[in-house]
Amino acid sequence: MRTAGVLDAVRGLGLHDHVCWPYDDPADFRRRAVEFLADGLALGQRAWYVADSDDEVMRGHLDELPGAAEALERGALQLHPIGETYRSGQVVTPADQVAAYAAATDQALADGYTGLRVAAEATPMVRTEASLEAFCRYEHQVDRYMAGRPFAAMCAYDRHELSEEAIGNLACMHPASGPDAAPFRLYATSASEVALAGELDLDSRERFPAALRRAGLRPIGGELVLDASELDFIDHRALFALAREGLRTGSEVVLRTALSSAARLVELLGVPGVRVEAA
Amino acid sequence: MRTGAARDHVGYFHETAFYRDDDDFLALVVPFLEEGLRAGEPTLVACGAANERLLRAALSDVRGVTFLPGADQYARPTEAILNYRRMFADHAAAGVAQIRVIGDVPHPGTGAPWDWWARYEAAANRVFGEFPLWGLCPYDLRTTPAEVVDDVLRTHPHVARPDGQHLANPGFDPFGRWPAWRPHPLQSRPPRVELLDPSPAEARRAVERVCDGVALGEDERDDIVYAASEAVTNGLCHGKPPVRLRVWADAARVVVAVTDGGPGPEDPLVGLVPTEDSASGGLGLWIAHRTCRDVAMTHDEEGYTIRFTAGVL
């Protein structure tokens, strides 16, 4: 089971977890990255620290990580300047980037680790509209990979550099995020299953259809099944967004939720192509 | 060809009538129905139980009359519009020259909230305008409050009299003003909650907290939370600041009022019919009209207010 929801700390995350961590204070980010990587090392994962700095500076960021020098020495902990990790340059190519992390995960497994864990300061990857769009798509694709393979990541973004809107667009593609990042989350629960959690209202009027489009959900057997057991509120606009997604993918959308209001709205409005099942 | 007073009329011939006793009621309605039956026109009756009994006893032959239980047909204006439009469309598709309907529209004298029925009576001229329809809405002066009579006179272009006359109504001005505001009894007390410029999520949580102490069914609770969320959303998107949420409650009911500083929706049909136009926010209000016990709107010095009730009225 992956960790999902709004978190106030990054401690204790598992082999498949994927957390978005927007931050105001770089020192706060570094402290959390150290915690996240230390947990990974304790779980036997190879740990990567990815940031827009040189080795010397990045090494300094990890001073507080117990056994950092020794872990760096034996290759359990690795420093990766961001330009080297995201080789495709300013605009990420989602499939290529997922493949690169898949290869790194396989290598970590081959080297005797339980998987790979990355703490990345990814702000440089989303500074333009085009790169942000591509990265949002990538976030969902890599999320699917992580749900099925022992790869965990903490994606940190600088609130001083990015708009609240950009942060929200990124955060909603993660199963877990820090406080005040996004009102809903669309994420993978396995390599083929997707979950929808949180609240879908005015705040999501544009972001939710965009997130659906960016996720590029693929129907299975004519159905697009969403595990919405952690969904707290959905308005009719979001239900119609799901209906459009069903139309676009030629499938019936199945929303599995405990919210009886969702079923009533679908019935009242005759939302086409959406079936609500009790979760 | 259409028959009777609506002979040369195109579209909806919307007529009211007032009566003070059963004889007057029958003098108004029996000829209306019998003329329709003789002409072979679809003839519908959606009256309260007492008036339906009177009509069944007075008509020489009720075959050909479609009796719709008034309490069902007039459960709420959105459903009345949906059901009537479905029936009228079927008759129109069959090529009938005229459809006749007589209906008892609910009001406080019969135990129902009036605001949304006043807006229904005003909207009816448009929402049924495409049908060759003669609708007679008789009101019983023994039970109808004076301000309801005012709204009825404003919203009906035609008036029938028990002596058989059919007159044009010089006071017809359906959208001249909104119905008179009747504060809910709970509104005489200070609200349990008052929020200034809440987000829709904050509004939902505030209403949920108030609902916790009230005997409401799960659906009733969901419905008023949804209505509050939509009203705040509309206030933020289409109204003007400040947006105020106020919630009153006692053991058996919850009243939510959302006020914004703007002029309110322009279209008096808002909430009574679904609008495709997402800019109007009309679908959210339509949902509220289909789920809450009462929806009322007013315009005053604070701006535009919409009010919803859950639980007992």
From TrEMBL, chain A:
Top-rank lineage group of the source organism: Bacteria
STAS domain boundaries: 194-279
Pfam hit, one: MEDS
InterPro entries membership: MEDS_domain, STAS_dom, STAS_dom_sf
Gene3D superfamilies associated with the record: STAS domain (3.30.750.24)
Protein name: STAS domain-containing protein
TrEMBL record, chain B:
GO molecular function, one term: protein serine/threonine kinase activity
Database matches in Gene3D superfamilies: Histidine kinase-like ATPase, C-terminal domain (3.30.565.10)
Keyword Transferase among record annotations: yes
Domain MEDS span(s) in chain numbering: 14-157
Family annotation (Pfam families): HATPase_c_2, MEDS
Domain Histidine kinase/HSP90-like ATPase: start-end pairs: 201-309
Keywords: Kinase, Serine/threonine-protein kinase, Transferase
PANTHER family cross-referenced by the UniProt entry: ANTI-SIGMA-F FACTOR RSBW (PTHR35526:SF3), ANTI-SIGMA-F FACTOR RSBW-RELATED (PTHR35526)
NCBIfam families documented for this protein: RsbA_anti_sig
Protein's UniProt name: Anti-sigma regulatory factor
Organism, as annotated: Saccharothrix coeruleofusca
The organism's taxonomic lineage, starting at the top: Bacteria, Bacillati, Actinomycetota, Actinomycetes, Pseudonocardiales
